[in-house]
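F.,

This is the one I mentioned.
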C-alpha cells in the first residue's frame, strides 16, 4: 500500500492493547498476532488509538525523538506496513 502524508490510520477494532512495564503489547484477534513493542513503536501505537494521518504521526514522532527526519519517516512507514499486514491497524477515509 502506498502511504502518503494524508493516509489515515487507527488501531483495528479487534486489536487489544495494554502496557506491561515500559513496553506496550498489541494483540490482533483477526490477524492472530501478539506484538511486544519498543519505546518508539509504543509511541506510534498510542497515537493510533484514534485516527491520525501519517503526516501528523511523523511530525509528533519528530518532536519526541532525536533522529534524522527521513529515518523517522522511513521507519514509521515500514512499521505501519507491518501492522497493516498483521491486521493490527486499518486505514480510514
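My design for it:
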Amino acid at each position: 500500500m502506498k502511504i502518503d502524508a494524508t493516509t489515515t490510520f487507527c488501531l483495528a477494532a479487534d486489536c487489544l492493547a495494554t502496557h506491561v512495564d515500559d513496553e506496550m503489547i498489541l494483540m490482533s484477534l483477526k490477524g492472530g498476532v501478539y506484538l511486544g513493542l519498543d519505546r518508539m513503536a509504543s509511541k506510534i501505537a498510542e497515537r493510533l488509538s484514534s485516527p491520525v494521518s501519517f503526516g501528523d504521526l511523523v511530525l509528533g514522532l519528530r518532536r519526541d525523538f532525536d533522529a534524522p527526519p527521513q529515518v523517522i519517516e522511513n521507519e514509521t512507514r515500514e512499521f505501519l506496513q507491518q501492522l497493516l499486514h498483521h491486521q493490527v491497524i486499518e486505514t480510514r477515509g
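The chain has one domain: 8-92.

Talk soon.
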